[in-house]
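Revision sheet: structure tokens.
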Amino acid sequence: MLLCLYSDSEVIFVFLCPFFALSLPFSVFVEHNLLYLHLINSVNRNMSALWIMVLVLLVVALAGLVVFCGVIARRLLPEELLKVGDKVEIFTDGEYNRTATITGLTWNRLYIYDTLPLPLDYRGTFYGMGTDIDGVDFWYLANRKHYFLVPFAEWIRRAYRQLSYPFNLCPVTSEGELLTAAQKQKAESEKFQAEEENSPSKNNETDTDE
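Predicted:
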């Protein structure tokens, strides 16, 4: 009945005690037995306290890792900055679209070919991204080799609500400058078209047809 209250080592000790009792006085035997059981209980309590401390430390370490994982991951990602005049690799819905030169940058637009605006919603350390009104996702990279890192960086950004990296794709172009550039390109296009219509070769073709 009493054996059920102790561990395996205690049970073995109590089981073997009658063999030692033949050579010891009964009072000494009882005293030694009680001291041994007290020692075993003390060791068990100390081990339990140690395991509790270890578990607490593991939980704290895991919580710290979860909290600072976003910062750590961002530091591990490459840094490739883009600015006006740089070549940019453009992907739409995960597929390569084209390589073009950045001709203008505002807070929410990236311009190529002077007059073609593309959506820009977020700036990362090595990429930019945006979504147009049709739900098409645009990715802008300086290095095409970093394409496979974008999904991971986007997951980190959404999970930890990271802000845009302020040194990438910095807006340096005003809407007025872009409008002026568009008007200038339109004027040049109209001028070129007028020259085409009034060119001598065009007139000669008209005379021949008559």
